[in-house]
Amino acid sequence: MKAKEMNYRKAQNKDMNMLAELFDTYRVFYRKVSDVEGAKGFLVDRISNNDSEIFVAENRENQLLGFVQLYPLFSSTRMEKLWLLNDLFVDPEFRGKGVSIGLISKAKELVEQSNACGMFLETEKSNLIGNNLYPKTGFTLNKDSNFYEWSMK
Length: 153
Known about the structure:
Radius of gyration: 15 Å
Strand content: 15-25%
CATH class: Alpha Beta
Strand order of the largest sheet: 1-2-3-4-5
CATH architecture: 3-Layer(aba) Sandwich
């Protein structure tokens, strides 16, 4: 399978069953308990409330191979819109075939089409695949900032 044999497009309601399975596998990768129905509900809410943009990669058999989900944000200092690339996942069976690069390209198109100033992401230091992928696709590691989190859960 080659990158040109794949279709990259915005997720639709018809994708929810396959997308929920992928999203659940993604969450399990980050040590969360499997919950396919919860994943489906979460994704349906994001799409129906226009909270995020989700793009999928599918093969010629209309099988979803991966997805990327971005959330809109605003930079007060830049006084511009920007995007948080929050989720990127490719089915392990299809990794190494350029799917992630294609999904990141769709994310970059969104940034351009929405006249945003850029996008950023966070990944765990232990995510070797992501930490090798992102610099190859034009992301730079921000060594000047600290990332802090406050959480109720």
